[in-house]
Every structure is written in structure tokens, then in C-alpha cells.
Protein: Maltose/maltodextrin transport system permease protein
Amino acid sequence: MMTDPQKQDPRKAKLLSIIPGLGQFYNHQVLKGSIFLVLFLAFVAELALAGVRQIVNLITLGSTPMMDNSLFMMIEGTLQILVLVVAIILYAANIYDAGNIAKQANEGKKPSTSLVQMIKNIGDGGFPYLFSIPAYFLMLFIIVFPVLVTLFIAFSNYDFLHVPPAHLLDWVGFKNFTSLFFLSSYRQTFNAVFGWTIIWTVVATTLQLFLGIFTAIVANQDFIKFKRAFGVIFLLPWAVPAFISIMSFSNIFNDSAGAINVQVIPFFNKILPFLHLSLPAWKTDPFWTKIAIIMIQGWLGFPYIYVMVTGILQAIPEDLYEAATLDGASAIQKFNHITAPTIFTVAAPIFITQYTGNFNNFSMIYLFNSGGPGDVGGGAGGTDILISWIYKLTTGQSPQYSIAAAVTLLISVIVIGVSMIVFKKTGAFDLGDD
Structure:
């Protein structure tokens, strides 16, 4: 039986594409094949001129102090890895495209062979890809690149004793991670800081969520008058820049000259003498500092939740409440079965981001009291959370960049892991089967 000479062989097209562009030439797509071939030759040239050397330097991190800068070698090698990843993706796309076009030709679809046809095909079917591919490339080099550099630093000995180019860096494997968990000087600090970070995140965020939901529900009741005025008042903490508010509160909570200890507490002691309120050491006692920053964060964070929940409440049909009233439901039952489920179904992703945001809330911790008072070791103060401890590890007199990078990776794993688990459990981003 004779074979149709016009038939294209997808397998042959893919085999020819081992050298990028040849498969497209086989499919009579000279322009596309030329593009793939030029990109392939450019990558080979880049690899020969600099790429191989940069990958080798990434592995060795240099051999001669003052001449070799280990940090630059690490950065350049990381960039080269990303270039290699992009090249592999394009190489795979080249093979897939050659086989797919050959298959389409056998089905009677004429492949584009000119620039005009290629542009028309992109406009018809590839328009979304045309706009999304640049975004992916930007993400690769703006997000993935710094993360990879941080990852590599975490596995090196980059500290105040090894600062390039005067000293070379070495790969130390998991030493920095094991030091955090097993070396006494770091283990105690990490446990103290991590424990307080969890407490701070849970308590402060839950407080601002509670205040936001509570004020929104109360302000949304029909018997409340001057709702617009209350709305303006509740938005005031959100209207003022957070760093200004935090620094103002830092002065207000000053132990000896702040308004809380000088005016507010003495006022209550005067009108209610049986209370005998003492003057807390807001800035010099870690316990009271923690209480202060939790209260301040609740005040700063609730307006956003108030606005969002108000919008959700206004979208709930009144028919649901009227039907519940006819069925004899109490106010608490209405809240439990109508209001609360609606709020948490709609706002669950935002609530989760509030927790993850406070987990890394550097401004609140550092601007109020620089992570103090007290010292829990390793350069960390009594109210430092992980992110502010990282800052001190990298800016102190004896910077520990590799340890800071290791802590950064642990933070990322914790935040991403917890967020994904909660998102999965709540179905917050479940967009259905479509």
C-alpha cells in the first residue's frame, strides 16, 4: 500500500527537533524554525562564553580571596540556572510544537508559514499566552531569583567572619538549620522568638478580626443612628499611615512621660479610687510591651475588616432574616446560621492573609520598641518576632547572613504551608471543576 507523500510524520518532526528548528523546517515553517534555531545557537554561545564558567563558580564559590567574590559568583550562578531552566522549557516547547504541527497537518489544518499567518494565529488562539508569558518571565527573575539566592546563602557560611571578597564562602550543607534547632545559643533564641511569633500572630490578628466583625455587625443594625458618622470614626485608624500611628503610640505608652501612665491611669484612679491601678512598665517590661503592641495592632487592623464585613453584611438578602424570624430564630441563631457562615465563606482568604501578614509584621514590632526590651540571646529582644530577628541578624555588629537566610526559609515554609492547608480545608480558592 502506497503512503501519501503529503503526510507529515509527527515522530520524525520531534526527532528532527532535537536540534531546535529542524522540526519546524520539516513542517515548512521556515520563520518559526529560524527563530528556534537562532535562540538555540544564542544559548549555546552564551553557555560556552559564560554559562559553564558561572555554573562551575557556583559550585566552587572561588579559590582565591580578593580576586574571587563568592557572593557575586553565587548570584551569577543562580541567574545562569534560571537561564538554563528557560532554555529547557523552550527546548521542550520546540519539540512539542514540531510534533503538534505535524499532527495538525495530517488532520487537514494548514500550518502558518509566513509572518502574517503567525501573527494571525497568535491573535486568534494565542492571545492569552502572549500576555501571560512575559508575566511568567518576570516572576521567574523577580520572585524566584531572589528566593534561590536566599536558599543558597542558607547553605553557606556567609557571616561576619566570611565576608567576600576578603574571604571565600563555603558550602556547609544543613549546618545553619541544625544550629537553629540543636546549637544551644541559637536553639534557645529560636524557640523563644518563634513561640512569641506564634502567640503574637494568633492573639493580635484574632483581636483585630473580632473588633472588625463586631463593629460591623453592631453598626449594621437598624436601630443604630448616625451610621455614617460611626463609619468615619471607625476608619480613622486606617486613614493615618501606620508607621506614624505606631510611633505616636510608642510615645503615648512611654513609662515616665507617656499619656497612658501620666494622664489616663491617674484619671481612672482619681474617679474610681477603689481600683488602685498601678502604672505598667510598657516600654521596659517585655510582658507589658507585648500587651501594648497587641492592643495597638487590634486598633490599627480592625478598620479594614470592618469595611470588608460591612460590605458582606449589606449583600445578605433581608429575606433570609425575615424567614428566620418567622421560624422563631433568636438573634444568636440568626448570627450562627446566616451571618457568620456568609462572612467566613466570603472573607476566609482575607482573614488568612491577615494572619500571615502579622506573622511578618516588622513595622509594628520594630517601630514601637525596636523589638525590646530585654534580651533572649542571639541578638533578639524580648518582643522580637522572626522577621525582626532576621533584621538584627543582618544589621548587627556581627552579622549572620546565612543564619538569617535559614530563618527566612523557615518562615516561608511555615507561612506557605499553613496557608495552603487552611485554603484547602476552607475551600477558599475552590473555583470548581471548570
